[in-house]
Amino acid sequence: MSQRSVVTIERHIIEAERQFPEATGAFSNIMYDIAFAAKMIAREVRRAGLADVLGYTGEVNVQGEEVKKLDEFAHEVIFKALDHTGHLCGMASEEVEDFIPIPDRFPTGKYCVLFDPLDGSSNIEANVSVGTIFSVHRKISDHERGCAEDCLQPGYKQVAAGYVVYGSSTMLVYTTGNGVHGFTLEPSIGEFLLSHPNIRIPEKGQRIYSVNEGNYNKWSPEQRALVDHLKGADGQNPRPFSARYIGSLVADFHRNLLYGGFFMYPADHKNRNGKLRLLYEAAPLAMIAEQAGGRASDGFRKINDIVPDSLHQRTPLYIGTREHVELAEQFLAGGRVGAEALSIEAVAAGV
Ligand code: P6P
Fold this sequence. Notes:
- The termini are far apart.
- About 45% of the residues are buried.
- This protein has 2 domains: about 190 residues, 2-Layer Sandwich (Fructose-1,6-Bisphosphatase, Chain A, domain 1), CATH 3.30.540; about 140 residues, D-Maltodextrin-Binding Protein, domain 2, CATH 3.40.190.
- Helix 1 runs antiparallel to helix 2, helix 2 packs antiparallel against helix 3 and helix 4 crosses helix 7.
- A hairpin with a 3-residue loop joins strand 6 and strand 7.
- The strands form 3 sheets. A 7-stranded mixed sheet has the order 3-4-5-6-7-8-9, with helices on both faces. Strands 11-10-12-14-13 form a 5-stranded mixed sheet, sandwiched between helices. A two-stranded antiparallel sheet has the order 1-2.
- It is globular, with a radius of gyration of 20 Å.
- It is of the alpha+beta class.
- The structure holds 6-O-phosphono-alpha-D-fructofuranose.
- 6-O-phosphono-alpha-D-fructofuranose (P6P) binds next to helix 5.
């Protein structure tokens, strides 16, 4: 019988909080509330095959996408789990165009939470994994209760970041800047149990690249050269990568986090800033990737150095195994030279 104790996410959060004597518990409560919302969403996602849940509300969100009921449900669950607690000064959600103030009837606090309530929801009807992504910042504005300025912060200022992947099991993965920890939901008791302590992207992990190659003709020559190199089409890579693309950011990222490899959503001629959102998709995942020993950039600069201008601004994203993201940056800078200029070791390693 294993002597390893069962660590719930609540216990993990409390033990982490004890490391900060000045902690008021507000931050811990936010994490509990997010975990609670995740359980509620997981239950509905598991039932997504039921006719009464699927289908469209007929409304359109800020992304111009028809809103599936589960998107809306997930947004409402997270909002209602957090709006009354007195710990937040506001929120931002993929589903809502503007900054979301705390309702006047509730007190406010010193944190704000940004979230994508159900990323990849277009995959739900195909039973493909989907996810929730969240980012936590401290209040910085002088506004009495909170305002958009509190959300418009660069990723390096995040105090916590995480995601929930609703797949064959439901996992919540988060960091507060002290490593990355994964919890798997045990549905029979309704608890997230620590299953992946101190996740690190494997140093010599799998050589996987993840990108929608259907956009190849819209990419820059440098981006095309990169992907040609990754699959050995340029004759300069003795160890071609494998391609994996789920089309669901959280699922693609989660695989890279555990196995190695990297995910790309490049800019293209139509979308000069790519498709993914900086504040509640790229930045939280970038904090996790960096905490797990990986790297996240827009192809030229670290994601978490980008100072945002608007809540829903987009960014190209390259994220995962550090060496792989750095290789992408070499190509995008146009600085990639032929194999003859690389060290013998690098060529042998198929970098
Ligand atoms: P494409 C899902 O719609 C999403 O926002 C991400 O989860 C995913 O990585 C990306 O878009 C897929 O986009 O253009 O490849 O279908």
